[in-house]
Design a protein that fits this description.
CATH topology of the largest domain: Growth Hormone, Chain: A
Radius of gyration: 21 Å
Pfam families: MFS_1
CATH architecture of the largest domain: Up-down Bundle
Protein name: Multidrug resistance protein Stp
GO molecular function: transmembrane transporter activity
Helix content: over 70%
Order of helices and strands: HHHHHHHHHHHHHHHHHH
Membrane topology: Multi-pass membrane protein
Oligomer: single chain
CATH class of the largest domain: Mainly Alpha
Subcellular location: Cell membrane
CATH superfamily of the largest domain: MFS general substrate transporter like domains
Strand content: under 5%
Number of domains: 3
Shape: globular
Length: about 475
């Protein structure tokens, strides 16, 4: 029987189509993260963005996604998985339509923030649906591998698709393409997923916890993104950092006194979830940060066009997708912990080979051994860490558990990129080509070291469920 104890849960033979919808939702989330990069020059000139403000077309999405994930995860548990999934997909569709029709910079930044909120609802809702529709074990592992492959494809194909759309239809196309996709996902989710019960209005909702957690995390992500450019000692950064600390401190205080806390205390005693949260943060700080430096290497050092840069990510996309499947099969053969050790070791070797292969006159072929090993390790680790995050979690807590793990994913990404940009020296000035090459190489070495440290941190754990 499916893990959902509901008579309306899909039968085993119908689970293929729901999985397609859930994977498509992850594809939309990952596409939306980076499809706008190629369109930024057109957006800047068409809507009158200044060079400094243009970054907020990307950053507004990241800040609100990271800040609202915890709230999105708990809303999924309390209001219903299908209900939140459908509302989030519709939010994506409507905000994307407004974005494609935008005629001012302020409206577009606001649209990106709303899209981020949509992502913070859609991600935990989709992950929670997978973890409850599919039985713990091989069935769920296969579903997570397929879901992960869709996300990997979106991240890597986003630049290529963005280049095609901008060349053919202009910058609005990168927003308008989401409208039919998200609308179809919302419609399909309405009919394919188990119906939710009535909204549990009689249950307590930790509103103070929700407000303080969302404010604290949103401000924290904002600081980590904005500080490298504005300066860590700037007045605005220090003020937001202080507000973040105050908000998160209040959140901890509220949670210890709430009858129905936003984050149930027993989850913080679950070693597997805690280990997975550490792993998601490390994953996004290392594996997920490298494409930023690869893009700099391709476009600035070697002068690739936007289309050529997108094409250069085709190999990583295919290998990451294959890695998610390899990870799923390896978990069945050797367990989560052993698989994660192997996948992270593979990724570390790949990052090291990439660092050694970067050169001013090197060919793309020279990068392939490092790209293949890094991408294989990335795909397998992605599958393994979500298996670890869901294992042993009760169905009624799957949403908040997904929200916790995905929040550390977003925060880890912001922290990792800020640290790596500082190490590489690519954010504070206009480096020479030689300086940029040295910086990209240094970032790759640090990424390799970070992945190795993560693998070492897994060694004390004994049971697969402990990660």
């Amino acid at each position: 029987m499916p893990a959902v104890n509901s008579p309306s849960a899909p039968s085993r033979r119908r689970l293929g189509l729901p999985l397609l919808v859930l994977a498509s939702a992850q594809l939309v989330i990952s596409l939306d993260y980076n499809i706008v990069y190629v369109a930024l020059p057109g957006i800047g000139s068409a809507l009158g963005f200044s060079g400094q403000d243009l970054q907020w077309v990307v950053s507004a999405y990241v800040v609100t996604t990271g800040g609202f994930l915890l709230l999105g995860g708990r809303a999924t548990d309390l209001l219903g998985r299908r209900r939140v999934f459908v509302v989030a997909a519709l939010l994506y569709a409507v905000s994307s339509l407004v974005g494609g029709l935008s005629e001012s910079a302020g409206v577009l930044v606001a649209v990106r923030a709303v899209q981020g909120i949509g992502g913070s609802l859609l991600f935990p809702a989709a992950l929670s649906l997978i973890n409850t529709l599919y039985e713990e074990g091989p069935s769920r592992n296969r579903a997570l591998a397929a879901w992960g492959a869709a996300g990997a494809g979106g991240l890597c194909f986003g630049s290529l698709l963005g280049g095609v759309l901008v060349d053919a239809f202009g910058w609005p196309a990168v927003f308008l393409v989401n409208v039919p996709l998200a609308g179809a996902i919302a419609l399909a989710g309405t009919f394919l997923f188990p119906a939710d019960g009535p909204p549990p209005w009689q249950r307590d909702f930790d509103l103070p916890g929700a407000l303080t957690a969302t404010a604290g995390i949103t401000l924290l992500v904002f600081v980590l993104i904005h500080a490298p450019e504005a300066g860590w000692s700037s007045r605005g950064v220090l003020f937001c950092a202080a507000l973040s600390v105050i908000s998160l401190s209040l959140f901890v205080l509220v949670e210890t006194r709430s009858r129905a806390p936003l984050t149930p205390g027993h989850l913080f005693r679950h070693r597997g979830l805690l280990g997975a949260m550490v792993l998601t943060a490390l994953f996004s700080a290392t594996f997920s940060s490298l494409p930023y430096f690869l893009t700099l290497y391709f476009q600035t050092v070697h002068g690739y066009s936007a289309m050529a840069t997108g094409a250069a990510f085709l190999v990583p996309a295919l290998v990451v997708a294959a890695g998610t499947k390899v990870g799923e099969r390896a978990v069945a053969a050797v367990g989560v912990r052993t698989m994660l050790l192997g996948s992270m070791a593979t990724g570390a070797v790949g990052a090291l080979l990439l660092a050694l292969a970067f050169s001013a006159d090197g060919s793309y072929v020279r990068l392939l051994p490092g790209i293949v090993l890094l991408s294989l390790g990335q795909g397998a680790t992605w599958t393994g860490m979500w298996i670890a995050a869901a294992t042993g979690i009760p169905a009624q807590d799957q949403g908040i558990a997904s929200g916790l793990a995905s929040t550390t994913l977003q925060v880890g990404s912001a922290v990792g990129l800020a640290v790596l940009v500082a190490v590489a020296g690519t954010g504070s000035h206009e480096p020479t080509t030689a300086g940029l090459l040295d910086g990209v190489r240094a970032a790759a070495f640090v990424i390799a070291a970070g992945i190795c440290l993560g693998a070492v941190a897994l060694l004390p754990f004994r049971r697969p469920a402990d990660v």
